[in-house]
Every structure is written in structure tokens, then in C-alpha cells.
UniProtKB/TrEMBL annotation:
Main location: cytoplasm
Family according to the record: Belongs to the DnaJ family.
Keywords carried by this UniProt record: Chaperone, Cytoplasm, DNA replication, Metal-binding, Repeat, Stress response, Zinc, Zinc-finger
Listed GO MF terms: ATP binding; heat shock protein binding; unfolded protein binding; zinc ion binding
CDD domains linked to this entry: DnaJ (cd06257), DnaJ_C (cd10747), DnaJ_zf (cd10719)
Protein known as: Chaperone protein DnaJ
Subunit text: Homodimer.
Function, in words: Participates actively in the response to hyperosmotic and heat shock by preventing the aggregation of stress-denatured proteins and by disaggregating proteins, also in an autonomous, DnaK-independent fashion. Unfolded proteins bind initially to DnaJ; upon interaction with the DnaJ-bound protein, DnaK hydrolyzes its bound ATP, resulting in the formation of a stable complex. GrpE releases ADP from DnaK; ATP binding to DnaK triggers the release of the substrate protein, thus completing the reaction cycle.
CXXCXGXG motif repeat ranges per the UniProt record: 142-149, 159-166, 185-192, 199-206
Binding site for Zn(2+) 1: C142, C145, C199, C202
């Protein structure tokens, strides 16, 4: 046993976390515990996994073992091969998830589960907020039994197997000596009482399934992926337990013109070369309606016109983001002879018939535009 591979024994990788080791041990121990399976081969296997767990669950021993030493070697081989200081309570802890001690009967009332529903919004709704009626499939308190789960006029009977304690203690003799174990009572599932006459309406669950309509106010400024928590709007718990929470997950439908980045909106407009050179004004359909925007004479392709405060309402503070209009200057593609003549005339006037072609200054260059794109500008 000294040379066995403890990782293989527990079926975990060498870099397994403490949690994974504990889980692996618990799973195996449930199968192989001598109380469950008394045959000698299984007991031998149980000893092996327990020894492996004792070493791998202790960071110091695990480190020693990883370095090639076996902490069990040289330890007292007497009591079933376990060394002194066997962490018995740890092992029991791993089994039962508690440090032992009496827990008493558990309550039938438990908290209801949380639920999440997706709410699709268009850009205008998420920018300004909206009110929605939502239909939720959920569980509500059974009105017949008020959550108790018992038929009217009846009460749960005290469980005669555990006398209402909800757990059963057992003393077993195993290779570890006498072991006192306690486990939930199988007859009452740990409740300590038995409902012999369940409520007909809810079959004893204390709640009934239904479809509920709730009206929710969605604040301005939410965005795709925002979760809104509606405390206590989830399903009611079994046995009349408190309700869980309802979460709304916002899904924002893409807008056909505006792209949202945080609280700012971006769009691109194409203007003809002549308009860019001479200046013009555009009518932009903003979220607030149509608005006039001046394009100054000499506007370059790629230039951005900012409409302050025409973006999305900020969720956690006051004010709104901006609307950024990216200007794209279109070069005419097909010129009629008269147009071509005029353009040639213009080129001549401007001395641009054979322009040398200049490198753009640094700030306008490709890489800085790439950088701006990264920075979300
Ligand atoms: Zn009921
Ligand atoms: Zn019982």
C-alpha cells in the first residue's frame, strides 16, 4: 500500500483541487463504506481510498507525497494501517457534510427557486426605459392548505421510526471500531413527521403551479446582458417557504442604423464628395426624432460629428451618452462627359492634375485608426 498511487486510487488528476479530491472521496466512500458493503475486498478498497484521502486532503502530506515520500510509511502499521492522528472527524465530515451533532428534524418549508426570464427590448426601449407585462410560469401558495400540505382539518403525524427527530442513529462495528452514524430517517425523509392526508389541491407540496402576469418597470439605460433582480417575485418554496427571486435578463435587439457602445450610439452617413467639400446639412433620425446636423465645408472621410446628449440614458447616473456620426465621403464612380470635364477643370485650377500623393500625418494614419477602434472611439 505504501507504493500505491493515491491520485489513481481516488481517480483524480495530479493537479486536482482540494475540492475535487474531497468530492472524489465522498463519491467513492458512499459506494464502499463498510456499512453499505461489508465484503472484505470492498473494505480493503475503502481503506485504500481513505488512506489516499488522508494524504491528499492535507496540503503538507500531499506535498511530501508529491516529493516521493509516503507519509504512511514508518507510521504505526498497527491499527489497520492508519497512522497516529487519524483525522477521524474530517473523514466523518466528508461523509455527512456536517461536523456531526444532532440536527433535528428539517423543516418542510424551503425557499423557492430563483427564475430567470429573458426580455427582448429594442434600442429605444432600453435607452428610455419601458414598462412590460410579463407572463411567468411559477408556483404560488396553495390557498386550500396555506402551504402546510395537509388536507383541511388534519395534521401531520409524528414519525414513529425516528420519534420526530428526523434522523436515525446507528452504532456499527467496522474496522474503525465502533462508529456512531446518524442519517436522515428514511420513513419521513428527515421531516420528523408524516403527512397521511395530503392536501388534494397541491398533493402535499403546499404550492400550486400557475401562470402569473406581472408588470415590471425597466429602467432607462439597461443594455444587452443586464440582469434586473425582482426580489421575492420567483416561485414560492415548498411547504409554504419564502419565494425565490425573479431575474430579468435583458436582450437588446440590434438597431438597423445605430450601433451602441456603452451609452454612446454610433452611425455612419455617406455624403457625396461635393457636399463634403462645400458643406451641407443633414437630417438625422435620432432616438428623439429628426434633427438637423451641419456638415462643415472641407469635411474629410472618417471625420466624426458628435451630437452631445443624443445617446442612451446612463443607467446609474444622470445624463445621456452622445450620438457619434461617422462621415463617409463618397467619390463619384461614373462620370458623364460634362461632369468629367468640370472635374478636370477643377483639378487644373487647383494644380491637382498629377498630385504627388502624400503620406497622411501620424494621427490620421491606419494604425491610429486601428487603435481608436480598439479604444472604442
Ligand atoms: Zn394544498
Ligand atoms: Zn422519521
Amino acid at each position: 500500500m505504501a507504493n500505491s498511487d493515491y491520485y489513481a486510487t481516488l481517480g483524480v488528476r495530479r493537479d486536482a483541487s482540494q475540492d475535487e479530491i474531497k468530492k472524489a472521496y465522498r463519491r467513492l466512500a458512499r459506494e464502499l463504506h463498510p456499512d453499505v458493503n461489508p465484503d472484505p475486498t470492498t473494505q480493503e478498497r475503502f481503506k485504500e481510498i481513505t488512506q489516499a484521502y488522508e494524504v491528499l486532503s492535507d496540503p503538507n502530506k500531499r506535498q511530501m507525497y508529491d516529493l516521493g515520500a509516503d507519509p504512511f510509511q514508518g507510521a504505526s502499521a498497527g491499527a489497520g494501517g492508519f497512522g497516529a492522528g487519524f483525522p477521524f472527524s474530517d473523514i466523518m465530515d466528508a461523509f455527512f457534510g456536517t461536523g456531526g451533532g444532532s440536527r433535528g428534524p428539517r423543516s418542510r418549508a424551503r425557499r423557492g427557486r430563483n427564475a430567470t426570464i429573458r426580455v427582448e427590448l429594442d434600442l429605444k426601449e432600453s435607452a428610455f426605459g419601458t414598462t412590460r407585462e410579463l407572463h411567468v410560469d411559477t408556483a404560488v401558495l396553495c390557498e386550500v392548505c396555506s402551504g402546510a400540505g395537509t388536507a383541511p382539518g388534519t395534521h401531520p403525524d409524528t414519525c414513529d421510526m425516528c420519534n420526530g427527530r428526523g434522523e436515525i442513529q446507528q452504532v456499527t462495528r467496522s474496522f474503525l471500531g465502533q462508529v456512531m452514524t446518524s442519517r436522515p430517517c428514511p420513513q419521513c425523509s428527515g421531516f420528523g413527521s408524516i403527512i397521511r392526508h395530503p392536501c388534494q389541491e397541491c398533493a402535499g407540496d403546499g404550492r400550486v403551479r400557475t401562470r402569473r402576469t406581472i408588470k415590471v418597470r425597466i429602467p432607462a439605460g439597461v443594455e444587452d446582458g443586464t440582469h434586473i433582480q425582482l426580489a421575492g417575485e420567483g416561485e414560492i418554496g415548498p411547504g409554504g417557504g419564502p419565494p425565490g427571486d425573479l431575474f430579468l435578463e435583458i436582450v437588446e435587439r440590434p438597431h438597423e442604423i445605430f450601433e451602441r457602445r456603452g451609452d454612446d450610439l454610433h452611425c455612419t452617413v455617406q455624403i457625396p464628395m461635393t457636399a463634403a467639400a462645400l458643406g451641407t446639412s443633414l437630417t438625422i433620425e435620432t432616438l428623439d426624432g429628426p434633427e438637423e446636423v451641419d456638415v462643415r465645408p472641407g469635411t474629410q472621410s472618417g471625420q466624426v460629428i458628435t451630437m452631445y446628449g443624443r445617446g442612451v440614458q446612463r443607467l446609474s447616473e444622470s445624463g445621456r451618452g452622445d450620438l457619434l456620426i461617422h462621415v463617409n465621403v463618397e467619390t463619384p464612380m461614373r462620370l458623364e462627359p460634362a461632369q468629367e470635364e468640370l472635374l478636370r477643370e477643377l483639378a487644373k485650377l487647383r494644380g491637382e492634375e498629377r498630385p504627388p500623393g502624400k503620406f497622411a500625418p501620424g494621427q490620421q494614419g491606419f494604425f491610429s485608426r486601428l487603435r481608436d477602434a480598439f479604444n472604442g472611439r
